[in-house]
Amino acid sequence: MIDKESFHPLNYIKKEEYSGSMDGMRYMMKRVKGEEADVIRVIIWPEPYGIHRTPEEEKQFTEVPLTEEGVAQAADWLNEQYEEQKERWRESLRKPWV
Questions:
Q1: How far apart are CA 10 and CA 97, in angstroms?
Q2: Which listed residue, of 15, 22, 50, 96, carries a Cα 20 to 30 Å from 29's Cα?
Q3: pLDDT in tens, 5-47
Q4: Could you give the CA distance from residue 39 to residue 10 in angstroms, rounded to a whole number?
Q5: Does residue 40 or residue 94 have the better pLDDT?
Q6: Strands across the sheet containing 60-65
Q7: What is the DSSP secondary structure assignment for residue 89, as one 8-state letter?
Q8: Three-state secondary structure of 24-73
């Protein structure tokens, strides 16, 4: 699980994509142009592949404000998705690498 107290990638996200994984769930956070202001797009997908080799239908995303509060919202969403889909993530770890 992501600890919001120590999860502070905002300055990094403002310049680069930020990625990580949690027990079979991969994620990426990146800055994108929103309708009114830039936002953080948070994308999740299952192991074993990177984001570009994973089919679009396997990915899920949300957008949050490009602020410290948005990073906290992203952490909450990542933790919720991990818990809600825990079996999906565990199953992805059992898939053979091709």
A1: 32
A2: 96
A3: 888 889 999 999 999 999 999 999 999 998 899 999 999 999 9
A4: 11
A5: 40
A6: 18-22, 25-32, 39-46, 60-65
A7: H
A8: CEEEEEEEECCCCCCEEEEEEEECCCCCCCCCHHHCEEEEEECCHHHHHH
How crowded is the C-beta side of 10, counted as CA atoms within 13 Å?
Answer: 16
The type of residue at 78 is L
Contact 46, 24 (CB under 8 A): yes
Tokens of residue 21, six digits: 């994984």
56-93 pLDDT tens trace: 999 999 999 999 999 999 999 999 999 999 999 999 99
User: What is the Rg, in whole angstroms, of the alpha carbon atoms belonging to the chain?
Assistant: 13
Cβ partners under 8 Å of residue 86, min gap 6: none
